[in-house]
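On clarity, I found the account of how folds are encoded harder to follow than it need be. Since the whole study asks how a given chain folds, the encoding of that fold should be made plain. The format is easy to grasp once an entry is in front of the reader. For illustration, here is how one protein appears when written out as sequence plus structure tokens.
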Amino acid sequence: MYKLKVRKIGNSLGVTLPKEALAQLDVAEGDEIYATGAGDSLTLTASDETFGKAMEAYKEMRRTYRNALGELAK
């Protein structure tokens, strides 16, 4: 677990990941990562082709089955 501080970056807010977290994700400057949330938690995942395709499929399915997913979440 890493304790991160939210800081002002230009007109936005952001966090800086420590080098240990970057090493764990195996990412470097310019790489893409995905942030997925559930409730009050957030998961960071290193970008890869398979994950990207899965996220695109989820986004498409989410729009189509929005009402059903809302009922299942209750």
Summary: The mean pLDDT is 87. The helical segments are 19-25, 49-64, 66-73. The radius of gyration is 16 Å.
